[in-house]
Structures are given as C-alpha cells and as structure tokens.
Amino acid sequence: MTEAQALPRRRISLFKNPVVVKELRGRMRGVRAFAVLSVYLLLMVAFALLLYVIATASQDISGFTSGGQIGRTLFTGIIGIQLFLVTFIAPSFTASAISGERERQTYDLLKTTLLPARTLVLGKLFSALSYVFLLLIAAVPLQSIAFLFGGVSEIEVVLSFVILAVTAVTLGAMGLYFSASQARTLSANITTYAVTIFITIGLPMAIFILLALIASFLSANQTNIAADVQVVLLYGLLALAATNPLMAAFLTQYWLLNKQSATFFYETVTSTTGIVQVPLISPWILFSALYLLIALVLVIRTVRRVRRIEA
Fold it and tell me: Record's superkingdom (predicted)?
C-alpha cells in the first residue's frame, strides 16, 4: 500500500492535526489575536464597571444596596455581554475558513497534502474554537468578582460557561458550514450572521411575545384550563425557550433560584381538577443537547461538502 493510499485512512490526533498547528501558529504570531483579546477584556471591564456603578446607585428602602444584589447584577451582566460577544466572534473565525482558502487560491495546496476532508474540517473548527475558548477563559476572573459580593453560586458559573461554550461550538460549526457552501467569504459571512441574528434576536422576540400572550391568558383563566392543556403549553414553552442561548440562560437561572435544582424539578399546575406537579428538565440540558446535535449535523454536512468540492 502506498503512502498516498494510507494517509487518508490514518487517524490523526486533533492536537497533532497539521491544520490546527498551522492555524494556531499563524493566528497567535500576529498582532490581531492579542488586539482582539485586549479589546474584548477592555469591553468586559468597562461594562462590569458600568454595572457596578448602576447597582450601587440603586438603593433599596433601607438606603443601601445589598452585596448579593450587586454580585448578581454583575454576574448576569457579564454573562450577557459575553454571550453577545461570543455570538458574533465565533462565526467570524469560521465563516472564512474554507471560502478564504479558495479566494487566496491556497485550497488546491491543501488538497495536495492528502489530508482527509474530516481532518481538514475538524482542524479548521478546532483552531477557531480554541481562540474563542481563550476569550471565555480570560473573562473568568471578571465573573469571579461577583463572589466578592455574594449572591452567586459555583453551579451558576459552571452552567454559564457550559451555555457559552455550547453556543460557540454550534455557531462556529454553522459558520464553517456556510464557508464550505458559499463560493465567496462575503456571502458566507452575510448568510452566517443573518442566521445568527435570527437565532439570537428574532427568535427571542417571537418567543417573548408568545410567552407574554400565553402568560396573560393563563393568569386570567388558570383555573378554567384543563391540567393536560397547561402541561402541554408548559412543555412547549420550555422547548421553545431552549432553542435560544439567552432564553436558556435566563430560565435556567430563574428555575435554579426558585426550585434550587440545576437538573430536574417540578412545576405546580393548578386547574379545576386540582393541583398537578409537572416534572421538568432544566433548559440548559435541552439547549446543550439540541445545539450539540445541530453542531454535529453541520460538521458532518461540511465534511461531505468538502469531499464533493475535492471530487
């Protein structure tokens, strides 16, 4: 068997992937990587200071603001701005990963290396996500400031990091898929950000309107609605909310504080037939499972797309 025949069948370790090594070396050599990291942290620090000023300025009836309230405000705000930044940074590193190679006319050189399509795709994705995870880890000390004031538990920090990481993986995989599907980087970026804006802004607005309408209807007719209907509506709203990272994070925190559980809990439903305890699963679990499944499908389709391009 020749070397050309054996190479595509050989399993290459992700950390020894030549695409990963080349991309990470090229990215960290330049000024852009450190500039993006510095600007990212400066924005986080400025936003945290702004939240601190706002939290301390708002006083309760006693004339002072509790440390727990300040800590929770800081933590929620930092996670929110992190989610916003990661949502737009993660696709930017992958939307040009493959289409950029074609535009620079270096894609044919990659094909001559006899790297399998799977190795190429995973290498591009891993190298881009490595830098995104660097941004997430660099901001952990800012989240830890909330512990100085109290009001935030360790499980909240862990769950917030999970939601941020899953969001980055899925949006990164989506950007890579459109990069392989589109001929030009500009069209890949436009398509990627159009879908991203729909997921992060359009979908939450639609869900918020739906939640407001159903909540208003249930509050006015709660005892007149059958328990089965309320259960179906509750499960439906939970499934819809789990499709968006912001809604998943908000509801996870809400139920964690009210039900003291990060996995499974019961919600009380009142109807004409009595009170029913409905078992529910925390939104972050549904969100993670759904988004990781989407990421897996996108990676598989990207690999197949690259194979068709090579053929």
Answer: Bacteria
Under a CB-based contact definition with an 8 Å cutoff, are residues 175 and 191 in contact? no
- Alpha-carbon dihedral of residues 97, 293, 284, 227, nearest 10 degrees? 140
Q: Give the pLDDT of residue 13.
A: 62
Q: What is the spatial distance between Cα 227 and Cα 275, in angstroms, rounded to a whole number?
A: 8
Cα end-to-end span (Å), the chain:
22
Measured CA to CA, the distance from residue 299 to residue 303 in angstroms comes to: 6
- Judged by DSSP in three states, 98 sits in coil
Distances (CA, A) of 146 to 55, 99, 137, 262: 12, 42, 16, 20
List pLDDT tens digits, range 206-264.
Answer: 877 876 777 676 666 555 666 777 777 778 778 887 888 888 888 888 888 888 778 88
SS3 274: strand
Rounded CA separation 64/295 (Å): 46
Contact 156, 74 (CB under 8 A): no
Q: Which residues pair with 269 in a beta bridge?
A: 276
From the number of C-beta atoms within 10 Å of its C-beta (0-12, 13-18, 19+), residue 271 rates as: middle
pLDDT at 6: 39
CA distance 166 to 129: 11
| The token pair that represents 105 in the structure block | 């006319």
Closest CA to 229 of 276, 263, 282: 276
Q: How many other CB atoms sit within 10 Å of the CB of residue 206?
A: 13
Q: How many helices (H) and strands (E) does the chain have?
A: 14, 2
Given this model, what pLDDT does residue 89 score? 86
* pLDDT tens per residue, range 8-20: 445 556 667 778 8
Q: Are 182 and 188 in contact (CB under 8 A)?
A: yes
Rounded Cα gap, residues 306 and 311, in angstroms: 9
